[in-house]
């Protein structure tokens, strides 16, 4: 058995089946996933049950099949929520044009879309449809949206279609889908044993009890880093500022909405972690004297003096070597990206810095995609295209894990780890 194939042993996988003529191939998929050692649950849209019976899936999996978004399991648990939480991965195969649209729009009116929407597990989607439907701009836009969510959307294959025509739209072969799921898990343990702390989101610096100075950071990049690290086996602490995205499950969350609170949390957490990723947009300045009472409107205006906030990452950079984690900073620069990023890397004693341009025609802040360059002391290390943030996170972890292991080989790390606070 290959290492990839072993990756499925004991994994909880939900297969979501929708109303395509290719639904019968989901039976083969389920059989292959089960043979590879996965525990498979099947959910079906009502339309899917017109093509294949739930009984066929139940016979293959020896487990009940969820067909009703309003259903409860025998213990009165909401069936789709139970499955959404238990799943290590969700494979939607075949995915109809209609289901792609529902998933992209966040519509939840069947068991499959409900499970995908409620879950934070990894999602693989294998579309199947007529070539005209697949190439329609609406479908292509939906696919891009789903990829932006971090879902792996497999390309359909070219061949003869149910319509009698030949073209693109055939469901990927079950073996291709299984291989994609195996690859997902094969790399999933490579951060096991590492404790990582990640900051995400923006900060709010109070002016008075109701007003603040903030920034537009959404937290998406930091959260993508946290999800990827969690999925690859790391123990993750997320220090979250103000975020427009839901923090992932399965990580230890600390809330820190001001720069001062973030500093306190980071300084406390840093010695107990192997790697610190500072992805949060921490305010550089805060009002010198925030008012305890709401400031009244005044026709003469308001002078606000700002004072610099502590430079958190520089402080961690100065920690003694035995407690200082491997340090990765983020830099959003509007000018001289390389000079500013590498200057920051040197001045603050960072191991790596992830730089992205802001203020141009493309705005990375709040976007689902980004284009970044990673710099080390020797200069630029990457030349990546624009990618969804989750894919950037995966690539960053490949690079960070590689550097971390090279710079801090196992014997030192083992000794450091042994003296650290226990995993929380
Ligand atoms: C015989 C037949 C085959 C179909 N095959 C497909 C297909 O392969 N892909 C697709 O997107 N829709 C296909 N449809 C249309 C879907 O079944 C229809 O859009 C349905 O509403 C999908 O519901 P669901 O996405 O909730 O499963 C087919 C319909 C029929 C009658």
Quick tags:
single chain, 424 residues, Rossmann fold, 2 domains, 8-stranded mixed beta sheet, 5-stranded parallel beta sheet, 15 helices, binds flavin mononucleotide
Helix-strand layout with pairing:
Layout: H1 3-6, E1 12-17, H2 23-35, E2 39-44, H3 54-61, H4 79-86, E3 89-95, H5 97-105, H6 111-118, E4 122-127, H7 131-135, H8 137-148, E5 152-153, E6 157-160, E7 166-170, H9 174-186, E8 195-200, E9 205-206, E10 212-213, H10 220-231, E11 235-240, E12 252-255, H11 259-269, E13 275-278, E14 285-287, E15 306-308, H12 312-317, E16 326-333, H13 337-348, E17 352-357, E18 369-370, E19 373-376, E20 379-380, E21 387-388, H14 389-407, H15 410-419
Parallel strand pairs: 1-2, 1-3, 3-4, 4-5, 8-11, 8-13, 11-12, 13-16, 16-17
Antiparallel strand pairs: 6-7, 9-10, 14-15, 17-19, 18-21, 19-20
Helix pairs in contact: 2-3, 2-9, 4-6, 5-8, 10-14
Bound molecules: flavin mononucleotide (FMN).
Q: Which class of the largest domain in CATH terms? A: Alpha Beta
Strand order across the largest sheet: 12-11-8-13-16-17-19-20
Shape: elongated
Small molecules held by this entry = flavin mononucleotide
Beta fraction: 15-25%
As for the CATH topology of the largest domain, it is Rossmann fold
Largest sheet properties: 8 strands, mixed
- Count of the domains: 2
Number of helices: 15
Mean pLDDT comes to 89
Low-confidence stretches: 410-424
The Rg value, from CA coordinates, equals: 24 Å
Q: How helical, in percent, are the residues?
A: 25-40%
């Amino acid at each position: 058995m290959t290492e990839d194939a072993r990756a499925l042993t004991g994994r909880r996988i939900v297969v979501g089946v929708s109303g395509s003529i290719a639904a019968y191939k989901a039976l083969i998929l389920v059989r292959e996933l089960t043979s590879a050692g996965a525990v498979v649950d099947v959910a079906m849209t009502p339309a899917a049950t017109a093509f294949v019976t739930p009984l066929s899936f139940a016979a293959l999996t020896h487990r009940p099949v969820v067909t009703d978004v309003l259903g409860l399991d025998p213990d009165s648990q909401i069936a789709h929520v139970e499955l959404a939480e238990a799943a290590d991965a969700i494979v939607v195969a075949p995915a109809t044009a209609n289901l792609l649209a529902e998933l992209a729009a966040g519509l939840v009116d069947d068991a499959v879309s409900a499970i995908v929407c409620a879950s934070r597990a990894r999602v693989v989607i294998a579309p199947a449809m007529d070539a005209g439907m697949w190439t329609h701009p609406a479908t292509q836009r939906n696919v891009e949206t789903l990829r932006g969510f971090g879902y792996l959307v497999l390309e359909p294959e070219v061949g003869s279609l149910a319509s009698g025509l030949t073209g693109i739209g055939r469901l990927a072969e079950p073996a291709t889908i299984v291989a994609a799921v195996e690859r997902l898990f094969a790399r999933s343990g490579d951060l096991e044993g590492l404790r990582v702390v990640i900051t995400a989101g923006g900060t709010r610096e109070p002016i008075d009890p109701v007003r603040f100075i903030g920034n537009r950071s959404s937290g998406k990049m930091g959260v993508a880093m946290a999800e990827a690290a969690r999925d690859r086996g790391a123990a993750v602490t997320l220090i979250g500022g103000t975020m427009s995205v839901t923090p992932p499950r399965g990580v230890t969350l600390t809330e820190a909405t001001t720069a001062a609170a973030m500093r306190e949390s980071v300084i406390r957490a840093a010695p107990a972690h192997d790697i610190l990723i500072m992805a949060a947009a921490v305010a550089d300045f805060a009002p010198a004297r925030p008012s305890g009472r709401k400031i009244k409107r005044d026709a003469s205006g308001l002078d606000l003096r700002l004072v610099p906030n502590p430079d958190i990452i520089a402080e961690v950079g100065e920690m003694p070597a035995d407690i200082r984690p491997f340090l990765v900073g983020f830099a959003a620069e509007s000018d001289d990206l390389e000079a500013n990023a590498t200057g920051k890397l040197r001045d603050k004693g960072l191991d790596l810095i992830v730089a992205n341009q802001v203020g141009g025609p493309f705005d990375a802040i709040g976007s689902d995609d980004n284009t970044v360059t990673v710099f080390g002391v020797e200069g630029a290390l990457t030349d990546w295209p624009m990618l969804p943030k989750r894919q950037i996170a995966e690539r960053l972890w490949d690079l960070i894990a590689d550097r971390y292991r090279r710079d801090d080989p196992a014997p030192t790390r083992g000794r450091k780890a042994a003296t650290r606070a226990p995993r929380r």
